[in-house]
Every structure is written in C-alpha cells, then in structure tokens.
Write a structure and sequence with these properties.
This protein has 330 residues and is mainly α. It has 2 domains: 14-165, Ferritin, CATH 1.20.1260; 178-329, no CATH class. Helices cover 74% and strands 1% of the residues. It contains 10 helices and 2 strands. It has helices spanning 21-46, 51-79, 108-132, 136-163, 167-198, 200-210, 213-238, 249-266, 276-301, 306-329; strands at 14-15, 91-92. It has a two-stranded parallel sheet with strand order 1-2. The longest helix is centred in the middle third of the chain and has 32 residues, at 167-198. The N and C termini lie far apart (86 Å).
Length: 330
C-alpha cells in the first residue's frame, strides 16, 4: 500500500500523483487534524489579550474538526478502520505549515494572514484530490470540501466581523500596536538614541585630535559594538516583561543592542574614506539624518510632540557633537 513510501531524511518523498485514493483520504484526514490543532493553538495564544480573535479561531478549529469527521466516515466506508499513517511531510511538493510554536512570534494580524493562506492551500489540495478520485462518493466529498475551503476566506471575514465588530476590533488593534511599541520600538529607539548621541563625542574627538580616518573608524567601531552589547544585555536583564507586559526580554535586548550599534556605526563608517575632510563631511550629514530619524520615530510611535522631540534630540545631539569637536581640536 505504501511500498514506495519513504520517511523524509531516509529517501525520496512520495509524489502526489502516485498516491492511491486511500492514501489521499488519509492525507486529507491528517491535514484537517493538523489544521484544527493549529487554529486551536492560535486561539489559545490569543485568548488572554485578544479574546474576540480567539473566538474566531475557536470557530475555525470546530469547522476543521467537522471536516475531519466527514473524511473519516468516508474512509471507513471504503477502506475500514485502519487509517494509513501519511502526513504532509511525506509528500513531495505538498504545502507545509509553519511549526505551531512559531505563533509565539506572530502578531494578531500576521496570524489572520496565516489563516487566509492555510485556507487557500487547502482549497487547492482538495481540487487536485477530487480530480484524482474515481469513486463517485469520494469525488463528491472532496469537491464539497474544495468548495467549503474556497468559502472559508469569506467565512473568516464573516467570523471576524461577527467577533470583531467595532469596539472589540479597535481595542485589539490598539493593544497590538501598544505591544509592538513596548517590545520593539521603545527599546530600539532608546538604543538608537544612545548609539547615535553617546558615540558622537568620542568619534569626533578622535577624528579632530588625530585626523587619521582609520584610527577614527576603529574607535567608532569599538564604541558602537561595545555600546550595543552593553545596551542589549542591560535591556534584557532589566525587566523580564511578565509584570510590565513589555514582551520577551530577548526581543527587547535584540532591538536595543542592534539599534545602538547601528546608531554608532552610522557616523563611524564614513571614516573608511581615506580623505579626512570628505569623511568628516559625510559623517556630519549622517549625524543630521540620524537625529531627524529619531525625532520622526518619537513623533510617530511615542506620540512625542514634534517640536519637543526636535528640541530634545537635535539640540542635545548638537551639544554632544560640539563637545567632541572642541575637545578633539584643542
């Protein structure tokens, strides 16, 4: 029955066009079972913070369970109680699902997009499976499931409207945005500010003291990487996120560390240019762009008034820059 079947890693996978109707039905059963588990996992993940979205995926998991029941009944009528153990990963070219544990790293909107893609892929599978079936009842069932999966995108929209109308949807979107800001934007912005501003003095002091572009670059590189490592570990160790709700410490540490390093490297990299005054001119332009980028992020995500952000960032950065130039040139 599965004489040419081989486990991934030990040989070639089966091609879909070599599967028998029994194997196609068994594959459909295992696929519906896995999709139902994925939707249930989505619901469990979202339930605490997004109860309305969780209700959407509870309903979708129930639909997948019903489809699985239909398939098992059809399978038993034709082939008996033993269901051939064949799954997605055993079939070449068959669509794959992301591991369920990855949902911990997905936002609510991304999870909804994943659900849309799952339904589209299932619809395509049932169309191909129905075309392969020769038994009339099996062909009808697979065709009906193809129609059902095609309608699931609309059903998902209906479920979203049913559970996420008006205020609940707005509240969930606001909560998702707030979580994004707390986990990624806030520590990333703090890192960018630290990397951009705190490295100005040592980089430009070295530049004007030595007028050696390579030495200046090495100082800037070491200062940027060192500050990035320090800020990343400090952010990660500062708060585990459980009480504050600021998200996983490794995410915040990563955002802070990377953005700190980028902030410093921005005006260190120009000193790879051999000409001192050309490198310095480019570095000053980069500093200008960095400071205005910080102002924009503060205004866009942190809702800091534009004039206040400009005063705090641009003026503060200009003072640090001036201090570095004066110290280096003295």
């Amino acid at each position: 029955m599965l004489s040419t079947f081989s486990i991934p890693g030990f040989g070639n996978k089966r091609r879909f066009d070599t599967l028998s109707e029994q194997e196609i039905l068994a594959l459909a059963i295992s696929s519906e079972e896995e999709d139902g588990q994925i939707y249930a996992a989505y619901a469990s993940k979202l339930r605490a913070d997004y109860p309305a979205s969780a209700a959407v995926f509870d309903d979708m998991a129930a639909e997948e369970s019903e489809h699985r029941r239909w398939l098992i009944e059809a399978y038993k009528r034709r082939f008996g109680d033993f269901i051939v153990p064949i799954r997605r990963e055993h079939v070449a070219g068959y669509y794959a699902r992301s591991p369920v544990w990855l949902i911990e790293n997905l936002g609510v909107e991304r999870i909804r997009q994943e659900a849309d893609e799952m339904e589209r892929q299932a619809h395509s599978f049932y169309l191909q499976a129905a075309a392969r079936a020769t038994d009339a009842d099996t062909r009808k069932l697979l065709g009906d499931l193809a129609i059902a999966e095609a309608g699931h995108e609309a059903s998902l929209g209906t479920l979203v409207e049913e559970h996420l109308e008006g205020e609940p949807k707005a509240e969930e979107d606001l909560a998702a945005r707030r979580q994004f800001v707390l986990t990624w934007v806030q520590p990333g912005l703090a890192g960018l500010m630290d990397g951009s501003v705190s490295t100005l003095a040592p980089i430009f002091a070295t530049a004007f003291a030595t007028q050696n572009t390579w030495t200046t670059f090495l100082v800037g590189l070491s200062a940027s990487i060192g500050a990035g490592i320090s800020m990343g570990f400090t952010e990660a160790a500062h708060d585990d996120g459980k009480l504050s709700g600021r998200g996983a410490p490794w995410k915040r540490g990563l955002a802070s560390g990377i953005m700190t390093t980028i902030g410093g490297l921005g005006h260190a990299l120009p000193y790879l240019i051999p000409s001192f005054w050309t490198a310095t001119t480019v570095a000053l332009v980069v500093v200008f762009l960095e400071l205005w980028a910080i102002v924009w992020i503060q205004n866009r995500y942190m809702e800091t008034p534009f004039l206040r952000a400009t005063f705090q960032v641009v003026l503060g950065g200009a003072l640090v820059l001036a201090a570095g130039i004066l110290i280096g040139g003295s």
